Amino acid sequence: MSTLQALPLPSNFEDLCELFLLYIAYSTLGWCGEMLYCSIPKGHICEKRGFLNGFLCPIYGHGALLVLYCLHGGFKNPVLTFIFGAIVTSILEYFTSWIMERLFHMRWWDYSHYKFQINGRVCLLNSTCFGLACVLLCHLVQPWLWAHITGLGAAITVPLASFIFGIYLMDTILSFRSAIQLSSQMGKLRELQTELKDYVAEKREESQERKVERRAEVRERARMLRDSADIFERRLLHSHPDIRKSREDLLAAIRARLNESEAEAKKAADEMFGSEHKA
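Below the sequence we write its predicted structure tokens.
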């Protein structure tokens, strides 16, 4: 199977800078494509997408380079590029989802509601879109883009790549910190939900005043966890609807359990008052 021009491996720092600029370009183009993909069905611009705060999605940059290296620049036959490109990018998406879930204990995207999907991590629709994107990448975009990047010369590519890398590194560190903090908040909400569930199930013999105090304590802890997210953590929540929904479901479950406990306490108080009144 004949292939197109393969992407060369970097042999020096200048080559590495050119490769990094190519990675940033595809990460940015991927972010733009995802924004369009999510905005068009809604009829308006959707919330900012992506793990990082900047206007790029690293998974698309990694995916583009992985395809270019694995397929040696792409097959001359576009159908083969489509098939193998879809396979490579789907494997990358699957393991990225798995690794991020293990790292942060959160599901960052979920395709379980799609008809053809694997464990909610990849789906046929996205894999098809990735395959088409690989055809555009290998047969149209890459030759033009790589020629322009290498044509800039070391006097531009080295300082430009160094400057962008500094910003990229800071954004990555900040985003990882926000994801860790958000994961911790979600874990504390789950612990609070379990604690409240166990407390209600035990049906402890406590005064009504103490039960009111306990419910107030739980409400306050839930409120503090809800409001403790900073601007970067809130940005992650807005960028990932599945995580935002999981967080809202946890808060709703805690509220429902508290309301149930209050209703039971009110019922018990009414029954006690009625017995005393009859006596």
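The chain has a mean pLDDT of 86.
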